[in-house]
């Protein structure tokens, strides 16, 4: 049973050598009573997993407990039931939920495992991203509720999205266009900027790595000199500062993530926070699992758009568990183009 294990706890930027692919021994083909044996097909790579690679912290959230060095790492994935010791699942079922990074997993906590009933309309791997629900890393719920609930958009408003070509960002941009907003995105390469404009329908996009002055970069966009109404925050740091100096009165900032800060031992300060006072800005953090109970709203609204080709969804699929470490670590250098998935097997 091939596995990806954490070799040692990480401080600073994660490297491929913090993860190792090893043979975890013979595959057990029978599920013990109360457990399900799953063949893992697709594994989701999510930025929050970086936090679980750090040493344990006292008082940390148990949902994001540190991984154990020498053991397989865990995350969300899609799999096929091989054998079941519980009534809710039978062999042959497709499922998604919390699993381990290995070829076969015995899952004893079946509360975090869900049957995939719609295997016809969308590719199975989408359940790691677009249609996933169960954890912070599940981009569809994050983008959908983060944008609609936290940002409360109105038609015609001006929206800015950072890390815009990624799993969450690409969806936020498209939801914003569907809501009738003007949307600008930033991303870290020419290829990603092209994708934002040609595939995801952003009105404008720029490569933040080529800008010395982010404040001036934002002012370049057609309506932004009037101010940004909504900022969907994925990166933090200097970008947040630049947005704060360009935000409009009564602007909203949905703080989804701050990936530029995750690997820093001392987080960067934000200088323009006072803008929140005189601009009456509302800035709100949120976590996708706040919205689990409303998952069916996402399915009802978004699956038809996907079927009609009105929402594009780009995945970056790494083939084989051996490419898993590079795929996960690559999130922090922007190697991924779209939602990063690891395909362990295709069926
Ligand atoms: P992505 O698919 O966007 O992958 C991460 C991307 O972040 C990279 O491709 C890279 O793109 C960008 N990036 C990496 N390092 C930096 C940096 N130093 N500065 C600026 N950009 C950087 O990941 P997700 O869509 O899954 O996640 C996006 C954000 O949303 C993250 O902050 C994540 O933690 C957060 N999140 C929050 C959730 C919640 O419930 N609140 C749930 C899911 C995600 P580029 O080439 O553009 O730099």
From TrEMBL:
Keyword annotations of the record: Oxidoreductase
Pfam families (UniProt xref): ADH_N_2, ADH_zinc_N
Domain Enoyl reductase (ER): 12-342
Superkingdom of origin: Eukaryota
MF (Gene Ontology): 2-alkenal reductase [NAD(P)H] activity
Entries under PANTHER family matching the protein: ENOYL REDUCTASE (ER) DOMAIN-CONTAINING PROTEIN (PTHR43205:SF67), PROSTAGLANDIN REDUCTASE (PTHR43205)
Name of the protein described by the UniProt record: Enoyl reductase (ER) domain-containing protein
Origin species: Linum tenue
